[in-house]
Amino acid sequence: MSSTERMWNAEFEMMPRDQLQKLQLQRLKQTVERAYYKVPFFRKAFDQKGVKPEDIKSLDDVSKLPFTIKNDFRDNYPFGLLAEPIENVVRIHASSGTTGKPIVGAYNRNDLDVWAEVMARSITGSGASAGDVLQNAYGYGLFTGGLGFHLGGERMGATVIPISGGLSKRQIMMMEDLGSTTLCCTPSYALALAETMQEGQVSRDRFKLQRGIFGAEPWSEAMRKEIEERWQIDAFNIYGLTELIGPGVSCECSQKVGMHIWEDHFLAEIIDPVTGEPLGYGQEGELVFTSLTKEALPVIRYRTRDRTVLNVEPCACGRTHVRMERIRGRTDDMLIIRGVNIFPSQIESVILTLPDLEPQYFIVVDREKSNLDNLEVRVEATERLWIRGEEARQAIAGRIRREVQQIVGISIDVKIVEPKSIQRSEGKAKRVFDLREL
Ligand code: AMP
Ligand code: ZN
Predict the structure, then answer these.
(1) pTM of the full structure
(2) How high is the pLDDT of residue 271?
(3) Ligand 1 atom nearest residue 327's Cα
């Protein structure tokens, strides 16, 4: 262990792997029982696979269990997956699903305690401690980012500034005035804030910022370098998802070589996304999680659709928990725009219900304007609309914008293009052009 390595809970973070696995097995058995006996959805899924809680005798037996997917959350919306009466639930969060209904996360008191613990570990892993000032620019609200960092920051005794996202000039002012040492936000927002600082010609010396903990969307090593150079800080990657708990499923340590998954709370597997077969350490595949301590909403083999590789080699920081590499992509078509999940199908459903549009469209995502993600939809007009002129086209573009905004909650650009100008596909249509260099 490097002498400067900070840990929130060294006993668990450095637990020898054989001991850790024993603990995982014991907790896995409890979770499986809970899911089977308290959640009819899980019982049915287990029964269909012919597996019973007592069949779990080793950690490898997890592969006997059925998968859970995003649509299972939607189909059981809002509370069908709860293993406890709603009266015990003290917090709800939500994230967008594949269609209109959101994915709901529910927490009882103990679940919030677990979340605070894993977030405290994650924040501490970046080198922060009780004396630090955390500028929390993740969005507060149904999104797990804001309140997840809030909880963990308070747990470890840092000074938390719940500034939420947006109002960049004010962020820069507060960062200087309050002496923020740690910036928490999406990586794209960290870059946008760097630009605001530079535009305002505020000298870097006036800030105490030392580090940032960035996640909730894909980013690259190139982007880490860019953020670190512009801000002159250390940038750490953090990962999580609403279905599991929110941020704090895994986070980087001082070494910045993969994110330690807090394995005493989350059991990770990598599977082949096509066959569903388990893959080994070092092999790229889809990340699957089973919760080990969650009570209100236990999750069995949740298919994240995120692609990565697990690495179990000992880490120089001294932690024993497995590391996941940066997310390499997704196995579905979900886009993350300014931290918000969007499925092309949501935009498509708006286009297809409006008159005077052809079912021909594509989506362009880029990150040109002020480093924030920008999503533009180009939709083909019918002949009828096209000859009615620019004003009519603008009107319908405005409708698409408003309806998409209502459904997914972010603003997009819409361009109505000439009839027959979009290339027809001869096989699978390529609907999304993601020009961001992630
Ligand atoms: P949400 O539940 O809305 O917070 O979205 C969770 C999804 O965000 C994950 O399944 C990932 O696809 C993505 N995500 C979260 N953190 C990261 C990260 N550090 N790197 C890449 N993708 C991330
Ligand atoms: Zn480490």
Answers:
(1) 0.86
(2) 98
(3) 21
